[in-house]
Amino acid sequence: MKLRPVLLVLLILCGFYFLTTHWLPSGALAGLMHRTTTTAPDGTTTSNGNGALGNFSLTEAHAAPEFDAEELQNIAVYKKALPSVVNITSTAVVCCDFFLQPVPQQGQGSGFVIDNQGHILTNDHVIDNAQAVEVTLSNKKKFKATVVGADRIHDLALLQIHGASDLQPATLADSTHLLVGQRVYAIGNPFGFSGTMTRGMISAIRSVILPSGNRIEDAIQTDASVNPGNSGGPLLNSHGDVIGITTMIASNPNGGADQSAGIGFAIPVSTAKAVVEDIMRYGHALRPSLDIVPLPIGPDEAQQIGLAANYGILIERVLPGGAAARAGLRGGNQLAYKGNEQVMLGGDLIVGIDGQAITTPQDLSNALNAHHAGDTVTLTIYRGQQRMNVKVTLSDAKQVANGQDA
Question: What angle do CA 379, 382, 387 make, to 5 degrees?
């Protein structure tokens, strides 16, 4: 008696299978539903159905839509740049767990390949204090990396991997003539999501202070969305060429964790090129320096002091043994106050370097970053009311700071 229900169900299923596979032809059940199709002038088709569950309609394009010019440019930038972008995992040992044992801690960042020898450019803070660095290429292959050199002042580091084939180096652009409003793209690994691209524009070119306290001149401010993990990745122009290295975000003070607040900053690639050249040549970055304490001068200050020019950089102090001291440049000898700040007046006023006008500290930084330590430049100065040219051989700022250049 207990088998009868089971046998009855099996008999019904077998009968339904036999009926649908042998007696009813294919599509015979379609007659149970009424369906019409209409085609619009643009080629889209609309199918209208009427069945037991009610009415429905479905509109379909006749083919995949063509990309517009803007989309094509986005796709081209991504395809060109992505193969050179890498994910960087740094492992540091921190102290301590419950049993006072060292604990490994990992950090994530981005970088990009700059040559076929496996050199990779990234931020110094991405690999700072790391005991091990691993690079993952866009093809997901992983390599151990060595730190060739780093420049904490500019937050840049140069890595190298060995054994990688078919590397595609990024194309480095000229970042000295960027304009606010230019379209830019950022590619990196925000929050570990590799190969992520965002788009925005250059919002400003300004001097910014890094979390380390060091100042970066001509930093590229952008509204392209960048987040933790983007650090060290490339900031690209509309041709897919690198114009900057993404380095810092302005955190949302109400957001809790660091996250994009619509403001990110990138180190100009022209600065990075100079740092890379120094590291490749000397093993460390040489920061060209005049070895002076500068005081920016504007028209109001120039008029009050009675200077011969209404702009420039006044030398407050000449560092002993430095480039300016060796060239015979003079610092101030008259104590004065600028607000509550003590300043020294009476020194030489720098108004030009190699024929280029120097009106702000940014102009001075740009002119120096275009050279290397050991290069000789011609300074145009005013000493009192006398205009004169002085040749100065730039020194390495690190040497003077460490007392090695005497």
Answer: 85
